[in-house]
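User: Can you predict the 3D structure for this chain?
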Amino acid sequence: MCALAADTPATEDRSKPAHEAAPGNRIRVGTLAELQAKGRHLLKTGSKQIAVFAGESGVYACNNRCPHEGFPLMEGKLTQGADGGGCILTCNWHNWKFDLEGGETLVGGDKLRRYPVEIVDGEVWLDLSDPPLEERRAAALESLRRSFRRHEYDRMARELSRLQQAKADPLDGLRGALDWTADRFEFGTTHAHAAAPDWLALRDDLAASEPERLVPLLEVVGHLAWDSLREPSYPFPTESRPYDPASLVAAIEAEDEAAAIALLRGALDKGLGFRDLEAPLAEAALAHYQDFGHAAIYVYKTGQFIDRLGPASAEPLLCNLVRSLVYATREDLIPEFRAYGEALSAWDGKGGEAVTAEDLRRLSVPKVMQRILRSSGNRKALYDALVGAASADFLQFDLPVADATDRGVSHNVGWLDFTHAITFSNAVRVLCSRHPRLWPQGLLQIGCFIGRNAAYVDRSYDAGRWQVDDPDAFFEREMRALFDHAQPEYIVSVHLVKLLSAAKEEITADPAAPWAADMLAAVNRFLHEPLKRKHSKRTAQQALGFVAAES
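Assistant: Here is the predicted structure, written as structure tokens:
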């Protein structure tokens, strides 16, 4: 039998001499006869606790702490395998099972650390030598990869911690996650990629403890795992062709993924980096009012993410970015936003009429477009007016709209939708400052948000209680709260970090801006007002109406 005296209480016989150490990392446990009489023995040396088990098939040693949640395996149960061989140790707390002979985790996730056992002259010796650092890093990365299959959040945290303990680059887990998930995003870049640089900036700027330094890494890795959960492979084309910026923009516009990726690979083959590609990618992202602003945000954030991880991570990030641009929904082709294209064609940059935020509020999309054109000659004043209108509307969002159950699908508007006017404006300012010829597109598209959101604003709402007196203290307090945000959905925590990061960037860039107070108050209100995420009755009502209309 595998388990000799398997039910013996897990206590240490303190009448025996202390464990004897030998040169190197070998340590004497005691005699084989003593171990066989007890069946199991707990060895404590330094910070280690090692469980030693005896059975007819051999002697086995492993960490006493279960790799799942740390419960003592000395209290576990030993049995033989189904085929009568091996030695199976079960942790009685959560039924994780480990093959002490072969080393496999049979039920559960993380691997159990085992120690080589040697019997010399009737005495039991253990080798406590740690595996080489590279081996430990590889094992932690492989276990992290396996945790993605069921999105085992706790296990991801443990494996990231094991990477750190093995003295790996803290970002290696993120690099690995990008490689494992690179072809698992059917429509390319997601919020998981876009929020990553903001999480990493939070880690660098505000983390004050080891748990706080781990949280941002865990959020990025966990979100990548979630967005790719059980997704099949969507392979990227492997062809490479000579790079030309105009051809890349044209391929994206034609929704030709094969051509766009081939041109991207050609650029990478030439040694070009993100900064060399940013202009055509930004042009493609702003070619339409598309994907509710995500396209431009994704371009901006992809560049930041590559800057964080290094050029070796550029290929998977850029391939996904290009794919997302190819498949971006083009809202300016639907009636509500069709005025955008007409306004862009009419833009001459000569409009001299003064403009304020109040001039742009309460207007439909076509009227916002017309009003923007009349002030197109003063880019700074127009940007301030647009961001001011977006911030004021955000501050006065009509919260009951999110609770309504009797409206059509086109009115499914909530808090998260209003955040996009701010994060998009942030991306526009950065990208258009670097590539000034794109300002007309960027400004008009901010106007699309204002025209669309106008119907969901309560202008009688008194927002005085949300005013922020000390912006620096506000940002530090609210961003620190992200280390323990308590949001079960990644899509929510991502919007928290993205919005705070974008607002902080904008206000840092222009602290005296006329819209700064409204933006701060709007962010403050958003962070502390209810956020309804599940709409059971609304979904049921809309489904019934939709199906009835088919009859």
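The first strand starts at residue 20 and ends at 21. Residues 327 and 540 are 29 Å apart (CA to CA).
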